[in-house]
From TrEMBL:
Species in which this protein is naturally found: Geospiza parvula (Small tree-finch)
Listed name of the protein: Pseudouridylate synthase RPUSD2
Free-text function comment from the UniProt entry: Pseudouridine synthase that catalyzes pseudouridylation of mRNAs.
UniProt-listed Pfam families: PseudoU_synth_2
GO biological process terms on file: enzyme-directed rRNA pseudouridine synthesis; mRNA processing
């Protein structure tokens, strides 16, 4: 942290100076910054003052300017042992004022998003009832202090921005040693956060099940991997999904790692999905995307008899909720265009070819709903919550808040929130008010948890697919005490499929799904 800055000039009352006032001499332009005894830059140029010896005097902090050894020569000019490279000394901790908390400098993080063996080894899969399931596992959520958190207590931040759990949960987690600040256990949630504080929260993580249908490799060479993605799988980790994602399954089961996502499919959409193996290939294909040289073709089954002629929909689309994943047509939305052509009609539903010219979230699904032909089994856009017209022509008759509440209540009544990829904890919006509703017994002595013992996972441990082994509940985990109905494999399939992906020098196709056959009957 810079010392001698942010306080009154020449008083020594800056953030890092604790001591008598010192005067600074102006430095010549381009002079190196001095390095204080604590190893931080003091922010004063050079501290070069006329005096004896080399014509310079030491900085008031007691060390020489950066790169200066006090002999009139820089470190690069100082003679050293032959054949040995000089290494800079490790920075020392800044001298703290009485009662001041030390915050270590931020660590350099890997800017890329890649997953390796240590991530894949966090847990394992098992298969049951046509579903791919993930054994619960312990996971660290990590973050640096956000600017808006500085000066606020941990308790206040948890109560206002992390409301999926009641405050009593975070108090219990702190007592159990699962909250760490700068890698030190948090003992007091009233501690005030500072810039560069590093927070780690260990949780017992449960993931929603997905279909057991395997990911099929359509093509692979030294540049790309193309797969046929099953419905219900997110492309990459997001929300409650981590191991039950295409990226993790390809890494764990196919040895395909460090892939670059070229485009995305909605979690409930199946079909052609393409990855680049190198950054160079990714950049080349991204350029084709920007030049609009890519063509995507989808097929879907919709409600009713779709018009025989080609239909073009250009209604703008607005995101209503990122958390639940809901959009609607609105004049304030982003411009987009989709072309539709009917392929077949079986007397009650139609198979439609879709050519999106833009790539907005849920574009095909929202446009089909607006046209009065929502996808037959769409768990969002073909629900009663949209009103008697199911959103046709943009007629909803509800505010966005009322619409979201109605959608959630409809799925809650059917015990199908998992189909949306959300849980009850994702919908909690109360902070302190939920404290009294916490299922944890406040008299429970969580200090008896053996913090040095490897925490046990609840769920199967014997590796047998679907076979129930011994089970140990995590004392803090609400999910461990909650009984949920598993979705059926049928509920995890939506009738929207990415059939073809074509670029300037490639074209990849998948086979037509069974539900898209002309003679298919529900």
């Amino acid at each position: 942290m810079p010392c001698g800055m942010g306080g009154e000039a020449g008083t020594g009352r800056g953030r890092g100076l604790a001591g008598p006032a010192r005067a600074y001499w102006p430095a010549p332009p381009g002079a190196a910054r001095c390095v204080t005894a604590c190893g931080a830059r003091c922010g004063r140029r050079g501290c070069a003052r006329r005096g004896s010896g080399s014509g310079r005097r030491r900085c008031p902090s007691g060390t020489w300017p950066s790169g200066d050894t006090g002999t009139g020569r820089t470190r690069e000019e100082e003679p050293g042992p032959a054949g040995r490279e000089e290494t800079a000394p490790a920075p020392k901790k800044r001298r703290l004022a009485g009662g001041e908390r030390y915050v270590p400098p931020p660590r350099k993080l890997n800017p890329g998003v890649s997953f390796g063996a240590e991530h894949f080894a966090e847990t394992s899969y098992y298969f049951e009832g046509g579903l791919r399931k993930v054994r619960p596992y312990y996971f660290d959520f990590r973050t640096y202090c956000k600017g808006r958190w500085v000066g606020r207590s941990l308790l206040h931040v948890f109560g206002t921005e992390f409301r999926a759990q009641p405050l009593s949960y975070y108090r219990a987690a702190a007592r159990a040693g699962r909250l760490r600040l700068n890698e030190e256990p948090v003992r007091d949630l009233d501690i005030v956060l500072k810039n560069n504080d590093f927070l780690r929260n260990t949780v017992h993580r449960h993931e929603p099940p997905v279909t057991a249908q395997p990911i099929r490799i359509l093509a692979e060479d030294e540049e790309v991997v193309v797969v046929d993605k099953p419905s219900s799988l997110p492309v990459h980790p997001c929300g409650r999904f981590r191991h039950n994602t295409v990226i993790f399954i390809l890494g764990k089961e196919h040895g395909l790692r460090e892939l670059h996502t070229l485009h995305r499919l909605d979690r409930m959409t199946s079909g052609v999905l393409m990855f680049a193996k190198t950054a160079a290939v990714s950049k080349r294909i991204d350029e084709q995307v920007r030049q609009r040289q890519l063509e995507k073709e989808y097929v879907c089954r919709v409600v009713g008899e779709f018009p025989e002629h080609e239909v073009v929909c250009e209604e703008p689309i607005l995101v209503v909720s990122y958390k639940v994943g809901v959009c609607r047509v609105d004049a304030k939305g982003k411009p987009c265009q989709t072309l539709f052509q009917r392929l077949s009609y079986n007397g009650s539903s139609s198979v439609v070819r879709c050519l999106p010219r833009t790539g907005r979230t849920h574009q095909i699904r929202v446009h089909l709903q607006f046209l009065g032909h929502p996808i037959l089994n769409d768990p969002i856009y073909n629900m009663e919550a949209w009103g008697p017209d199911r959103g046709k022509g943009g007629r909803i008759g509800k505010t966005d808040e009322e619409l979201l509440k109605a959608l959630v209540e409809e799925h809650r009544s059917k015990q199908s929130l998992e189909v949306l990829g959300i849980g009850e904890e994702d919908l909690n919006s109360a902070g302190e008010s939920k404290d009294s509703a916490c299922p944890l017994n406040s008299d429970t002595n969580l200090e008896t948890l053996d913090k040095d013992k490897e925490l046990s996972l609840c769920g199967n441990q014997d590796g047998q697919a679907g076979e129930k082994g011994w089970e140990e509940k995590d004392p803090l985990c609400v999910e461990c005490r909650t009984s949920r109905r598993d979705p059926s494999p049928k509920e995890l399939v939506m009738f929207l499929h990415a059939l073809r992906y074509k670029g300037a020098d490639f074209e990849y196709c998948s086979s037509m799904p069974e539900w898209a056959m002309e003679d298919w009957q529900e």
